[in-house]
Amino acid sequence: MLNDFLVPTSRNKNKPYLLRKIAIVTYTIMLLVVNYFGGIFEIDQAYASSITPANIISLTNQERRSSGLPELINNAKLSTAALAKANDMFAKQYWDHFGPNGETPWQFIRAAGYNYVYAGENLGKGFRTSEGLVEAWMVSPTHRDNILSPHYKDIGIAVVEGTLLGKQTILVVQMFGNLTASVQGVTSTPSSTPKVVTGSQKVITPTEQGEIRSIRITSPEIGAMVTDPAVKIKGETTNTQGEYSVAIVESSQLIGTADSEGNTWEFSKESDWSEGEHRIIANIQGTDIKSAETAFTIDSKPPIVSKESVKVINSSDKFTLSFEIIGEWNQADVVISSEILPVPKSEVITSANVEIPKTMDTSKVEIVVSDSVGNSSTLDVSEYFKEKEQEDIKIIPTMGLSVKDGINIGIVLFVFLLLCAQVVWYTKRGRIKDSVGELFTVGVWWLVIAVAIFNGFSGVVT
């Protein structure tokens, strides 16, 4: 009997019940209800997001590079401020740059210990990808101005999931800052006549004009500390014509090549650069023209809090939180809802203790630790401040998907398998020609539905 629903049989006149017109109409109605009226039936629309702070910073810096601006540096204090702001929006249920009680972005930045001269904030809600979020920011004039502002040098990102105004969503807070009054991206215009300055400061103007062909590495800069292990090597050449190849060499070993036709080139390694120092040289292939050696260091691993070391002592008027930090750290903060408590360094630099008054809201407690170059990690320790409660039993594992996404994918996959089974059945019996038109109709319907489900993710920025 079950076969009649899934595969062609004589009883169902060679057409599975689950691929008939009434079934297709039912699937369509289910998808419409889930995707457009899910809120009425309280269908959860939270989702596992590919949005990460690292991705957003990388895409933001990509936009800045395209506009000729220096990259922003990941700053742990701004990241802590962004996390506190996101927690505050969830705690007080608002979606704005300014809170219901007059909270401003600047108070979170100052509370994190970042004494800015310039500061700014972008917000995003409901996006599924970092690319979609940054694209939305870039088409909004005010958000674009923040991303491409020459006044900023530092950046901090927080990505937090929770319930806002009755809906499960992911909030992204992007904060910018500059501790000085200097503006980035201002360059001087070179004079038309080249000049050479000697050690004696005597200015010599060349009397003979010739052609010099050269290559140099422009990024990373010599001695740079790089937190992105997928960093791209960039450079410039002079007097190159047509297509040419640049070889990147480290310790006499060829790392890879990059092709170019202009006076700039870019090399992307197939895998991440390993942690530690790297010394590389760029060489125009087929020539003896080489760049000067560039040394840079990859430091992308943040310090982390050992979860096994976390302890909370409950006294009459306070909690005492203690934990150990693995790796060298420069700054640590305990973010309690929207409040920020700096962690003092003890004589034993791997351990820390923080006293938390019971007057503070400990429903959301996170520890943020970072090193001197801005690598940071966050550990949620809220559970240590709550009485043990029976956890909800999850009948169906979500695998990071929302109920809505699970239903969408489930229907699309189910119909696809039914179509495959029917094609196999007809092919084995040599009757595929008799059902081509019908299979084509259902296949087109399936393709349209699949494209509609997986195409175009949207969200809100402010």
UniProtKB/TrEMBL annotation:
<keyword id="KW-0472">Membrane</keyword>
<feature type="transmembrane region" description="Helical">
    <location>
        <begin position="407"/>
        <end position="427"/>
    </location>
</feature>
<feature type="transmembrane region" description="Helical">
    <location>
        <begin position="439"/>
        <end position="461"/>
    </location>
</feature>
<keyword id="KW-1133">Transmembrane helix</keyword>
<dbReference type="InterPro" id="IPR014044">
    <property type="entry name" value="CAP_dom"/>
</dbReference>
<protein>
    <recommendedName>
        <fullName>SCP domain-containing protein</fullName>
    </recommendedName>
</protein>
<dbReference type="Pfam" id="PF00188">
    <property type="entry name" value="CAP"/>
</dbReference>
<feature type="transmembrane region" description="Helical">
    <location>
        <begin position="21"/>
        <end position="41"/>
    </location>
</feature>
<keyword id="KW-0812">Transmembrane</keyword>
<feature type="domain" description="SCP">
    <location>
        <begin position="58"/>
        <end position="174"/>
    </location>
</feature>
<dbReference type="InterPro" id="IPR035940">
    <property type="entry name" value="CAP_sf"/>
</dbReference>
